[in-house]
Amino acid sequence: MNIIAFLSSAIRFSAVFLFGSTGETITEKSGHLNLGTPGIMCMGAIGGCVGANIYVSNANTIHAVPAILLPLLFALLFAGLTGLLYCFLTVSLRSNQNVTGLMITTFGVGLAKFIKADLGESVDAAIGAVCTHFRNLFPFADNLGWFGEIFFSYGILVYLAIAVAVATAIILKKTRVGLHLRAVGENPATADAAGINVTAYRYTATVVGSAVSGLGGLFFIFDYMGAWDSGLTSTEALGWLAVALVIFTVWKPDLGILGSILFSALYLLPNFVEVSFAMRDLFNMLPYIVTIVVLVLTSMRKKRESQPPANLGLNYFREER
Amino acid sequence: MHKIERPMRDPLFHISKRDDMSWKKRFLLRGGVILFSFLFTGILSWILIGVDPFTFIGKLFEGTFGTSRRIWLLLRNLAILLCIALALAPAFKMRFWNIGAEGQVLMGGLATAICMYYLGDKLPEPVVWLFMVVAGILAGALWAVIPAICKAYWNTNETLFTLMMNYVAIQLVSFFTNVWVKDGSGVLKNATHLNGIKLPELGNPYLLTLLVAVLLTVGMFIYLKYSKHGYELSVVGESENTARYIGINVKKVIIRTMALSGAICGITGVLLVGAINGSVTTATVGGQGFTGIIVSWLGKFNPGFMVLTSFLVIFLDRGTGQLNLTNNAFPAIVTGIVIFFIIGCEFFISYRLKFRKKKKQEGEVLQTEDAPAAEQTEEAKERNLLQKIGDGAKNCVLTAARGVKKGALFIGNQTAKAFRKGKDLFKKKPKEKAEETQTEKEEEDV
Amino acid sequence: MSDTDKAEKISPPCLSFLTNQNGGKTVENNVALELRNVCKYFGEVIANKNVDLTVRKGEILAILGENGSGKTTLMNMISGIYFPDEGEIIIDGEPVVIRSPKDAFRYKIGMIHQHFKLVDVFSAGENIVLGNSEDGKFRMKEVNARVMEIAEKYGFHVDVKKKIYEMSVSEKQTVEIIKVLYRGADILILDEPTAVLTPQETERLFAVLRRMRDDGKSIIIITHKLHEVLSLSDRVSVLRKGEYIATVETANTTESELTEMMVGKKISLNIDRSEPKDVQERLVVSALNCNTREGVKVLDNVSFTARAGEILGIAGIAGSGQRELLEAIAGLQHLESGEIIYHDPKTGEAVNLRDKTPLQIRELGVRLSFVPEDRLGMGLVGNMDIVDNMMLRSYRKGKSAFLDRKNPQDLADRIIEELEVVTPGSHTPVRRLSGGNVQKVLVGREISLAPTVLMAAYPVRGLDINSSYTIYNLLNSQKENGVAVIFVGEDLDVLLELCDRILVIGGGKITGIVDARTITKEEVGLLMTKTSSMNEEKEAEDHA
Q1: ipTM score of the complex?
Q2: Tell me: the pLDDT tens digits for A213-251?
Q3: Does residue C362 belong to the interface with chain B, where contact is any CB pair within 8 Å?
Q4: What are the tens digits of pLDDT across the range C454-495?
Q5: Is B7's pLDDT higher than 90?
Q6: In the prediction, which pLDDT does B8 show?
Q7: B419 touches chain A (CB under 8 A)
Q8: Chains A and C: how many Cβ contacts under 8 Å?
Q9: Burial of C431 from C-beta contacts in 10 A (0-12 / 13-18 / 19+)
Q10: Do C267-367+452-544 and C2-108+185-263 fall under one CATH topology?
């Protein structure tokens, strides 16, 4: 087994989980358990496809910057809009978060498939055309041996994922916005009484969080696969792993960087060691098992700081009496 | 003192809680919203796949009721979804968010398949059936009881726990499939691998499932409404403090209820594997464990309503499935939109929107009347509003119908044509572009 | 002390303001906040009706009213939690709309709620700065420094880095007050701030409030303790059943006048109290010790005897351990040590109830009825109808797996008729009934069990006079039937007229068990604050 290659693949692939879990963490910190994340990641992926399609079909030559920017923007837009739909139903219409979230997943996967089928096969060519620009941000990496492979061999989205996670961690910990957001998720009545606009925070956090999650789908299709995930089964499954990762990292995006690498290592390990298909399944089970263990252990320890946001999954209505 | 910025307007509307909407009004509102959502999806189908709303709705009915086989299929799918929704009802009523039905059903199915695989050639078939059912029930219950124990003793978040259990179950199924299937195809076949075991048919291949569903519906209705267990779990769901106060062992009730919930999921798994598919794959449940949650919630955890809500979901699924589209994702979109509408409409049942009106008049009215009278005018206003909405809807439909006959049809066709043309352009271009870039790249490589 | 110096330093703006006041026209400017005709309804319940109120700058206004008179709702409308259905709020002479707490802050209104609005996992500093969206960089260090500055100025003790969930009640209140001061509020609203404080803490709080008044701030304090009103406030506004009654200058009023305004007319309670007959020991509680989950002692070596045919009253400041005591007897609290011995009237056997679950207690044949403080959260299920609520106690009867709804139905009908419960029918969810009717349903059910011990926590809280008397009569008739009644109350007059003996509890300790027929109200009041003050003295000695 090639340790360097394994590590570098794991770090690269971790971006899927990291985007997904950072986005979901932002959302959950506001008190919203968005179980629509897998669907939103699929929407992000198809958003990227639409962006790529528009660019490739209109441009004569493919330049790196717009080839990345357009899919990126469309991925953010599609995922953000899906998050907005979730928000409208749960925040404004106060519907049950679990039910709405699950519905968003089914709907998002369906809609993504529909758009893909509607665009036809041209998309596959478009993905092929732009995906090279998503990979290998630093061409000099090859000259640096193992050091280059581990630190500089990735596409722009991997670095973006880490940057977003670090930024989110800082915002949550150090800034006023982060303080307010955490208060909204812990105790919206208190936040409300303190003059924080709970609705605005919940909307913003969920839409931004969804948009970030959507990038996970974009990365998976444009960087990792370089092709469409027919059936979207992998994207959806990865989305659930991202939700698991949030729990695994006890709602800390900076821990999420390490956690996502661990998850991705577990996910990819079967590709690097000679194992049967059956063993591979057991490996794939590990991320869920460790998440369950973390969940149970934190609940047993009852440490206040590592519990889910106290108001997770509950809608807020000021005049509840 | 420094100047204070003041908001100039009164709030546009004000939301307050209500629980007094009459049964009739609720029924009308929900029915109206469902009809409207059908129309909406119909219009959407017109734009997206070129099937006009009336054909679309016609197709829905044709797809579900067109032939006797379709009706049987409708009933069978309905039965399976209903079983899952029924399994979830007691858990949800206890406010235990069991979103692990997918895994619990799958585990039931897996246990069934294990019995078929290992016992099928050693024991007489009826004995194997017995083992299948018992094992399926136990496996489903086990998968539900694990999170329940953690919830009961350490208050572990059950939503996240049961969610994770789904994927452990899926991987387990995948594992067994890969162990059993040696030829590398990854397809587990009933005849070759599972010794050809199938649960008995009662006259036709659908009847067994239906029968189980009917029994479960009636049983669950009685259990929730008339049994002591059902009463206890509602008390726990409403208030754990009250439950403790009257001496209910909350932990025991949580575990017991989840065991029941999981057991029914297990039975569903037995039916899916033992009677319907004859085999197990990771897609055996196909997301119905999640759909069941939605069905159960929309049906207010009442078995009677759940029959209706699961019918609606299956109707949409089967109906749109029969549209014979090349694009097989349309049913998911239609179902999604209809359910979003229903979810959204619940808001208007449990909350009241009060729009700010001209201040003085309202003030006078409310001052001169005492509270109950005010309540009445409120209701009268609502009736008016409903009537207005009704009239508005009628007008809309009429106009829309007229529009369909005249201008809209023309414009629609034109836009659809233009849309498709544009799309064709999109479709062709990228290919060429891709080829171009490909050649460019090759050149570079050279 | 230096406090006074500071007060003087702060006073100049307020002094200039006071001189302005004499200048004729400025009287108008003197009004900080005015409410005109404010109304608020919750469904059919009228919480506030046509309330007019004026608060001047540099005064302490007390809002006086019984429980349920709409004080808190009214203040919630000023602070933006609720939105008034009708009426106007006027600040500095201009009508304003307060849609949210944020709006309230913009008008420099700050409220300290009775139930603290703090985020448990945040530190004191984080809670104080929460929602404060002033410009400039956000640095917890600077925030903490400013908090310390304010704390020092008014003489508070606060640890800015301590998490709220590690704090005591009075520490939490300190954080709440600093939070409002930090924002520079001009109008401060305090909702029953002294309910949870010791007399010393109360005095310290009052000193701070007076200093803030001298600083030109307007302070509204909600209370139903008359002596506090008289010692602290400049003016008093009285509410009764959601309606505004009047405002008077504190200096020109008396306790009895205020009481009369508060309760409507002077009512002598005239509860018929019979002499206890055939008194015998029923429940002997000895040396109970109980800790909260955080390890704070809530019951400290509590011992007493409840006798059959007698009403034992329990008096004390809210939160002195009354709830824990009753719950311990009912089998709902884990005890560190102690014994609860029940003497069975039939067999004469003695049973220890300690560490038994409610179910085990019943299975032992102990007929213990308990009317808990939290009616809809513990005693009843709000979303269930009256019949199903009757079943809570009786559904286990019989071996059948199914419920018997016939007997509960009969019981429900009987209670509705006998206790005159106002309800559309026996299938109405109890959550829709008014407070008094909810209580009748609960007490009715508990008495229907033919108890030998009946415990009732604040059974008349929020009830109108008539319903209250219904409850008193029920308790009395139970006593005459030979039941050992334990009554936790807050109104001392009621305790003195209803009970045979009164147990006074302070800070989890019994400070006295006295004869209700001979003791005076003042003596009971003294006993209520005894332990805490003794502790304070002890601490002071330790420091010295």
Answers
A1: 0.87
A2: 999 999 999 999 888 887 788 888 899 989 989 988 989
A3: yes
A4: 999 999 877 777 788 888 999 999 999 999 999 998 777 788
A5: no
A6: 40
A7: no
A8: 75
A9: middle
A10: yes
Q: Kindly state the DSSP code that residue C431 receives in the 8-state scheme.
A: G
Q: Does A266 touch chain B (CB under 8 A)?
A: no
Task: Give the CA distances from residue C243 to residues A22, C63, C264, in Å, rounded to whole numbers and listed in that order.
Answer: 52, 12, 11
Chain A interface disruption, residue of C111, C121, C134, C164, most A CBs within 10 A: C121
For residue C163, the chain A residues in CB contact (below 8 A) are 304
B174, B337, B434 member nearest A128 (Cβ)? B434
Q: Do A191 and C120 touch (CB under 8 A)?
A: no
State the DSSP code for C26.
Answer: G
More confident call, A186 vs B409: A186
**Residue C68: predicted pLDDT:** 64
pLDDT digits over A118-136, tens only? 888 888 888 888 888 888 7
**Would you say B81 and B292 are in contact if contact means Cβ atoms under 8 Å apart?**
yes
Yes or no, beta carbons of A179 and C130 under 8 Å apart:
yes
Cα nearest neighbour of B241 on chain C? C378
Chain B nearest CA to A93, separation (Å): 5
Q: How many residues in total does chain B contain? A: 446
CA distance B99 to chain A (A): 8
Q: What's the per-residue H, E or C state across A222-291?
A: HHHHCCCCCCCHHHHHHHHHHHHHHHHCCCCHHHHHHHHHHHHHHHHHHHHCCCCHHHHHHHHHHHHHHH
Between strands C31-42 and C235-240, the pairing is unpaired
Which of chain B's residues have a Cβ under 8 Å away from the Cβ of A114? 48, 327, 329-330, 332-333
For B215, phi then psi, to 5°, come to -60, -45
B331 touches chain A (CB under 8 A): yes
User: Looking at residue A135, what is its pLDDT?
Assistant: 85
Task: Compare all CA atoms of chain B with the CA of A62 and give the residue at the minimum distance.
Answer: B437
User: Hunting for tokens 């929460």 — which residue is that?
Assistant: C130
B231 touches C at CB < 8 Å? yes
Domains of chain B listed by start with CATH number? 63-322 (1.10.3470.10)
Q: Is the domain covering A3-306 a CATH 1.10.760 domain?
A: no
Answer whether B228 touches C (CB < 8 Å).
yes
Cβ pair C100:A182 closer than 8 A: no
Burial (CB count within 10 angstroms: exposed 0-12, middle 13-18, buried 19+), residue C79: buried
pLDDT (0 to 100) of residue C486: 95
Say whether pLDDT at B409 is over 50.
Answer: no
What residue type is assigned to position B170 of the chain?
A: I
Task: Return the CATH number of C267-367+452-544, one of 3.40.640.10, 3.40.50.11310, 3.40.50.300, 3.90.550.10.
Answer: 3.40.50.300
Tell me which range, B226-230, C188-192, C361-365, is most confidently predicted by mean pLDDT: B226-230
**pLDDT score of C269:** 62
**Chain C nearest CA to B242, separation (Å):** 4
